[in-house]
Design a protein that fits this description.
With 246 residues, the chain is α/β, with parallel strands linked by helices. The chain folds into two domains: 1-112, Metallo-beta-lactamase, Chain A, CATH 3.60.15.10; 113-239, Metallo-beta-lactamase, Chain A, CATH 3.60.15. It has helices at 58-61, 67-71, 85-95, 162-165, 182-188, 193-203, 225-231, and strands spanning 2-7, 21-24, 29-31, 48-52, 78-83, 108-111, 115-118, 122-129, 135-142, 145-150, 170-174, 207-211, 235-237, 242-245. A hairpin with a 5-residue loop joins strand 8 and strand 9. The longest helix has 11 residues, at 85-95. 45% of the residues are buried.
Length: 246
């Protein structure tokens, strides 16, 4: 099974990265609908598309307005956007207000259930994250492999969601800032390099991929990857269009 990293930055896109969007094409599962949502069109293989949102900040939901083009001329029979009730209400009232976007996207909204059955015998669960406005993280389990997606929160070795991600094969976790910017990370509700690596080690995950990278950070080594690998060696920085087998 492959996870495709379609958008790996936060806040706004830059010349190298679009904002948050991750896809498992063989199952028609998308995690977050940032500016990279337009790329989903090229990966569509299924007749049903399920989009799971972590929260309603614009860099994670603006792609809902792209759905008209994403599914146009594709054999998609159902597109469902899943999120907590308050986030769906905010999207309906604001993002999809007639003044901002006058044509209803071709999708249905569904309040996020405690547990969602997934194709291939899997299941998806969610857990709360500390972030301005509120957010959730996701764990996806199938027989023999698992994935956790955590974005827009402040990580620590004893994070409240530690048990929710424990033992996953792949942890995709936001890491907006390097350690030197810890004060700004705390202020904005984001994570830093060492804290995420410590969390991955404490959770006993198999592999860590850092995403939601600061769009102003440039191409070089924006997160000081060596700092993370000194704590958790199986760490890498996600890039747009990367494919990860898990």
């Amino acid at each position: 099974m492959k996870l495709h990293l379609l958008g790996t930055t936060g806040y706004h896109p830059n010349n190298q990265r679009q904002t948050a969007c991750f896809m498992i094409p063989e199952l028609g599962i998308v995690l977050d609908a940032g500016t990279a949502m337009y790329r989903v069109r090229d990966y569509l293989r299924t007749s049903e598309l399920d989009i799971f949102l972590t929260h309603a900040h614009l860099d994670h939901v603006v792609g809902i307005t792209y759905l008209i083009d994403v599914v146009r001329d594709k054999q998609v029979e159902r597109t469902t956007v899943h999120a907590t009730a308050d986030k769906l209400a905010a999207i309906n009232e604001h993002l999809l207000s007639e003044a901002l976007f006058p044509v209803r996207p071709p999708c249905e909204f569904r309040e996020l259930e405690r547990e969602v059955s997934l194709a291939g015998g899997g299941r998806l669960t969610h857990f709360p994250l500390a972030h301005p406005g509120g957010a959730v993280g996701y764990r996806l389990n199938w027989p023999g492999h698992s994935l956790a997606y955590v974005t827009d929160t402040t990580a620590s070795a004893d994070a409240s969601y530690l048990s929710a991600i424990a033992g996953v094969d792949l942890l995709v976790h936001e890491c907006y800032f390097p350690d030197a910017m810890a004060e700004l990370a705390e202020l904005t509700g984001h994570s830093t390099t060492t804290a995420v690596a410590q969390l991955a080690r404490a959770a006993g995950v198999g592999r860590l991929v850092l995403v939601h990278v600061d769009p102003l950070a440039g191409n070089g080594d924006p997160l000081r990857l060596a700092d993370a690998r000194a704590i958790f060696p199986a760490t890498e920085v996600g890039e747009d269009l990367m494919e990860i087998e898990f």
